[in-house]
């Protein structure tokens, strides 16, 4: 297989990793107003992702760098055309990161409430806009003969794009609540399980509608990997339901695992629907960017492939080790003890 096609799926793998890992970060942040009934519980929730949130975000940096190097035409069209949406995502991520670092610097209630609000908004905005962006890439956007985006930010806010954004918002929210249930004890743990039941049911309905619409897009476009897209969509539906079942049985580890599998297969559904395009043109299919006309030279892709073979396993091993080190639950008693020590 041509290296350009291999790198299309490597980039997809990197975005899958980002959406799975930073996805539950977003969900944890969005769960604060529902589960954080007092400062102790809010600290307990935030501490579940305290050691890993910045590591999770590096996946999008690597994905963006690989996109730039492997598919410069795709990168140029995407980042120029989706500039405002991506800028809003960047600002939200900055606000969220600042909040994690500064929230504990003072004990004032107003101080902490302001940063909690930044965490919530900084989690919800990317969760929504990533779905809008990816859905529009799959559906296609208006491009001219030079592969330049000729729409506006409002062009992206079409029904399919908004449904994609709502789907990722709910998927990440439920995924994050599963993680809170997995990593906490006491009242927060019980509340997270109950919240996941309610959000999970809504997620099933919205995600099912989005995946069915995506399959119709794949079939209408005559995508060569439509069968794989259908299979992944079916698996995503099953794993999402299974995550709800295990959550109801108080098996939060399995619930979180099936939630992660749902995101993996949902993103793969989009990637198989997109193939062999990287950015279809909705106004004239001849203006579309494909894997072949958007990719770098074989020499560049060869160097990148060797780098990926050497460094990607090391990165995965380091991430796995980090999660193993911080695998224990964040208990309420530990937070209360730390609060007493601080004062």
Automatic annotation (TrEMBL):
Keyword terms of this UniProt record: Cell membrane, Electron transport, Heme, Iron, Membrane, Metal-binding, Transmembrane, Transmembrane helix, Transport
Top-level lineage group: Bacteria
Short name of any one Pfam family annotated for the protein: Cyt_bd_oxida_II
Membrane topology of this protein: Multi-pass membrane protein
Annotated transmembrane regions: 6-32, 77-98, 119-139, 159-181, 201-222, 228-246, 253-279, 299-326
UniProt KW Membrane keyword: yes
Main location, first listed in the record: membrane
Location(s), subcellular: Cell membrane
Protein family membership: Belongs to the cytochrome ubiquinol oxidase subunit 2 family.
PANTHER family given in the database record: CYTOCHROME BD-I UBIQUINOL OXIDASE SUBUNIT 2, CYTOCHROME BD2 SUBUNIT II
Protein name, as recorded: Cytochrome d ubiquinol oxidase subunit II
Organism: Microbacterium lacus
Lineage of source species: Bacteria, Bacillati, Actinomycetota, Actinomycetes, Micrococcales
């Amino acid at each position: 297989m041509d290296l350009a096609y291999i790198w299309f799926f490597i980039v997809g793998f990197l975005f899958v990793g980002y959406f799975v890992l930073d996805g539950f970060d977003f969900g944890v942040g969005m769960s604060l107003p529902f589960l954080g009934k007092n400062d102790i519980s809010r600290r307990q929730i935030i501490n579940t992702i305290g050691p890993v949130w910045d590591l999770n975000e590096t996946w999008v940096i690597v994905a963006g760098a690989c996109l730039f190097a492997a598919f410069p035409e795709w990168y140029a069209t995407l980042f120029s055309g989706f500039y405002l949406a991506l800028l809003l995502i960047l600002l939200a991520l900055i606000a969220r990161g600042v909040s994690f670092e500064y929230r504990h610097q003072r004990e004032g209630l107003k101080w902490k409430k302001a940063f909690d609000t930044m965490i919530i908004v900084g989690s919800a905005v990317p969760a929504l806009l990533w779905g809008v962006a990816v859905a529009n890439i799959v559906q296609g956007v208006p491009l001219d003969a030079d592969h330049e985006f000729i729409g506006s930010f409002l062009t992206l806010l079409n029904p399919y794009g908004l449904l994609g954004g709502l789907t990722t918002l709910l998927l990440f929210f439920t995924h994050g609540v599963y993680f809170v249930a997995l990593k906490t004890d006491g009242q927060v743990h019980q509340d997270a399980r109950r919240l996941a039941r309610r959000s999970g049911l809504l997620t099933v309905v919205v995600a099912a509608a989005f995946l069915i619409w995506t399959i119709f897009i794949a079939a209408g476009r005559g995508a060569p990997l439509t069968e794989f897209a259908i299979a992944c969509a079916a698996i995503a539906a099953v794993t999402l339901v299974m995550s709800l079942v295990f959550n109801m049985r108080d098996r939060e580890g399995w619930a979180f695992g099936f939630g992660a599998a749902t995101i993996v297969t949902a993103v793969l559904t989009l990637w198989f629907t997109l193939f062999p395009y990287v950015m279809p043109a909705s106004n004239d299919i001849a203006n579309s960017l494909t894997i072949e006309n958007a990719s770098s030279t074989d020499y560049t892709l060869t160097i990148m492939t060797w780098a990926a073979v050497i460094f990607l396993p090391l990165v995965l091993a380091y991430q796995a080790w980090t999660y193993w080190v911080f695998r224990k639950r964040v208990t309420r008693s530990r937070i209360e003890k730390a609060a007493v020590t601080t004062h």
